[in-house]
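Example record for the data management plan.
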Amino acid sequence: MSNSFKKIKIAVLIAAIFLCKSSLCQLQPAKADSFFQFIKNNPSRAAVCISSNDSIISSLNQNKPMPLASTVKLLVAIEFAKQAAKKVVDENGYIALNELDKYYLPTTDGDAHPNWLEYEKSQQHIKADSIRLIDIATGMMMFSSNANTEFLIDLLGEDNVKNNIQLLGLQQHTAIFHLVSSLFIYQNPYHKKESVILKAIKNLTEEEYCKVAYGIHFHLKNDSAFKQKFRLNDLSLNMQKTWSDRLPASTAREYVRLASILNNRKYFDETTYGLIAEIIEFPMENPAFQKVFKRYGVKGGSTAFVLTHVLYFTTLSGKRMELALFFNHLSEKENSNLQNWLDPFEAQVIFDKQFREKIKF
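Corresponding structural encoding:
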């Protein structure tokens, strides 16, 4: 079961940046078109919103709520940047790795957390088995570590994270809750019929579901033996689908609005935006991006059934663009194909004006 992207692949975009000024034929238009054709052929399972310089240039089901998967972590990142800017938390303070380990549930994150730890070791960021808060936040975005996310929600305050929904004017957004802890809801300790468990879960209101997840989360962080009770085998495909469907949800239009707030640099103070750049706009560390973009931020998410992706950028010439692509009810093969075609599609959107004119729905 996969519930998050690993480190964002940017090789296609880097290649496009080097070649875009000379020849668009070096892009991968066939893959980009495959992505586009999938959307056209499966409109009920897709939502698209693309904005250029504050004008929507392409949309499909832009107001349809869809599960966000790890893309919801953008709101956690924003809250972190706000609090760090006000010195409520110290972004350079060190946190013991065993604190993060309390929140790590093996086999549930596509190895995002251990991959992040290996990366941080290679960067020599770990000191005396501790790591800086800013690196934890970046790992939440760059590698999509769920453990880092759960830790940060506790540190920042769950209500503070949730309040960003209203603060940022997101009209269509369901409640944020602890994603890792919610997996425990689908366990079957008394060997009941799966249909009975699923019916009971589906009958929970959003408020009840969040309360159950929080109760589990309390045990998970305070009882070192509690996570040993997790049994991945209890989560059948039907269980995973129900869990995926009940993840925090919003619309492509709302997340383009959110991306625009991050992109236009008019909403928060300069210090907050500086921290946002550090943890969300990590592709800008690459010199190839610096040749074309003033800023470039990205976050994706996935489950076995869901694929979501949000990006924003401003070019050196001042062109701004925000994009949100949401999919649900995917098969394993469809999900894999879309992830393979995603980067080429976005590169084509960025660099090919004719392709942008083509992708109307």
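Summary line stored alongside the record: The chain is about 50% helix and 15% strand.
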